[in-house]
Design goal:
heterodimer, A: 113 residues, mainly beta, six-stranded mixed β-sheet, 12 strands, globular, B: 124 residues, four-stranded antiparallel β-sheet
Amino acid sequence: DIVMTQSPDSLAVSLGETATINCKSSHSILYSANNKNYLSWYQQKPGQSPKLLIYWASTRESGVPDRFGGSGAGTDFTLTISSVQAEDVAIYYCQQYYSTSYTFGQGTKLEMK
Amino acid sequence: QITLKESGPTLVKPTQTLTLTCTFSGFSLSTSGVGVGWFRQPPGKAPEWLALIYWDDDIRYSASLRSRLTITKDTSKDQVVLTMTNVDPVDTATYYCAHMPGAPNARGYWFDPWGPGFLVTVSS
């Protein structure tokens, strides 16, 4: 299985600051045939199901605020939340869909400082 | 608008078989490329993928749970059913189903949206 490792495990930021969450895969998830990175990012608030934020590593899902941005390629990826708002408090997960194990990172908990 | 909802027993005894139903609307599981996946999430842990069924009955299972899982679809009822045999207290989790968008002749996409989840407790 492809192992996904996120850092940090938790992150406390002040309102309006930038939050950066990293995700590393144990195997490249870049498919050379189409030059796409098979990585998605989800946000999960307490008591709710995961919500898709980003797919293809950097494509924002419709309706997701543009302060959420994804970047990276191969094995190293980043979710950046610019100007963090109170409603962004949640756990964020990366997930690979390159292999049919659809593995997730362990999650990064974003809190307000 | 695509919606999914999980249903089933909230309490199951060890060694019994768990049957969960995902009822969806807003898409057809006969549309080329589309899939429905099942996940679970123990309290305080990350989601874990369990199984996936595509529009063409192509089925994939988690390697670690393959021997215990069966996924089927009923296109006429817009439902996907997951059964898990020989449950154990470690199978206690919130179970989710989710829609996989797709394209003809393609495999491997993200999951969106997810159902609200259904908590299953395994206990005697």
